[in-house]
Design a protein that fits this description.
Blueprint (H helix, E strand, L loop, with lengths): L1 H5 L3 H21 L4 E6 L17 E2 L3 E3 L3 E2 L4 E2 L6 E4 L6 H7 L2 E8 L3 E14 L6 E6 L15 E5 L12 E8 L7 E15 L3 H29 L1
Antiparallel strand pairs: 1-2, 1-12, 3-7, 4-7, 5-6, 6-12, 7-11, 8-10, 8-12, 9-11
Length: 233
């Protein structure tokens, strides 16, 4: 054991220092305050003419975003400073899903990066004959599970679950509406923000260095235990 420890020389000490820096960086990232990943205040004369609408959006330079769009089951409706649509008169969520009646948002981290989501927040409004039921889902589970409790006027939805962390592929979110008393009833998203962090994906060599460092720490700790045992005997 002493011979093995002796091999941990200057080169190994340098690697250990690098390991500690890596661990410190990982801790800093994990504890970093959430930042804006993608946002759009939606200020235009009639945003709903576009599908998707991208004007005015800002986003992290290390991600690609789609703009806010809509499914084929709803139609754009006139309205300034909001992304507005009609056609929310399906009776329930199941029918709405089949009818593709939703607003959609897609994000993807650029090569070498990953997205760690924190929240999705929006404000909205519905007309008197607009939808009364809402759901928010994602492509992470093929749009199977509801996320949060969206409303006509908006809400902040928690996306801090493990399934929304370390994402490198594209992810789509859909905001569904249903239960409108008339096909002419409208619902709009007036602004939205995805928050979280965008981080560099660690290189394979980083994990190799981490393993080497942990192995070296194990050797040193074991040597110390043997030394203490010998002193106490």
């Amino acid at each position: 054991m002493a011979g093995l420890t002796a091999k941990i020389g200057k080169k190994e000490k340098t690697k250990m220092k690098k390991l500690l820096l890596i661990l410190a960086a990982m801790a800093a990232v994990s504890g970093a305050q959430a930042q804006v990943i993608w946002t759009n205040p939606i200020t235009a004369t009639n945003p709903s003419l576009d599908n998707p609408f991208t004007t005015g959006q800002t986003f992290n330079t290390n991600v690609t975003v789609s703009g806010i769009g809509r499914g084929t089951g709803i139609t754009g409706n006139a309205g300034g400073d909001r992304y507005n649509a009609g056609g929310w008169n399906n009776a329930d969520l199941a029918a709405t899903i089949v009818d593709n009646a939703y607003f959609t948002f897609t994000l993807q981290a650029n090569t070498g990066f990953e997205i760690d989501f924190n929240t999705f927040a929006y404000t909205g409004q519905a007309s008197g004959t607009g939808p009364t039921g809402f759901a928010f889902r994602s492509s992470v589970d093929s749009f199977a599970a509801n996320l949060g409790a969206p409303t006509a006027t908006g809400v902040s939805i928690d996306l801090s679950a493990a399934s929304f962390q370390n994402l490198t592929g594209p992810i789509e979110f859909r905001l569904y509406g249903f239960g409108a008393s008339s096909a002419a009833g409208t619902f709009s998203v007036n602004d939205f923000t995805f928050s979280g962090n965008v981080a560099v994906v660690p290189e394979p060599s980083t994990y190799a260095l981490l393993g080497l460092g942990l192995g070296a720490l194990w050797v040193l700790r074991r040597q110390r235990s043997h030394k203490e045992a010998a002193q106490n005997s």
